[in-house]
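We give the entry.
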Amino acid sequence: MGAVFALFSGWYYWSPKILGHPYNELLGHIHFWALFIGVNLTFMPMHFLGLAGQPRRIPDYPDAYAGWNLMASFGSIISLMATLVFLYLLYVQLSSRVQVSANHWAIPSFFESNIPTTLTSSAPTLEWLLTSPAPFHHFNELPISSENSPPSWRGFGPL
């Protein structure tokens, strides 16, 4: 399930840039917490069932395990509802007419000027300088990044 949460976090981070439309952050929070609770309610009782001796992959089990299995089933229903919330969030995002800015995540600091002094001072990497969604084959050649560029891969300092 860790990989599934990583895929969802990647979607929430990159989808405004890829699609050019923002998502509803309240629905995103509801989706995360419902999925988090549902997944933990699904898989945590299975640990207790295994410790109690229930064998795996059987279609029928003794009635002694019914309570934990009911809790795990309830958790999977919550996870299903969270997935439906995500699908609705996706529908709302795709049908939105609101466009995001080039750097959707840029929040200027309190003492920082929001007027960029160089081309790359407002965005440390090149993808945030393009419009959202980014045009196909936008750069004919790689632009030169200036003062905010990371250290060279050949050493620890600038060339």
About this structure: The longest helix spans residues 66-95.
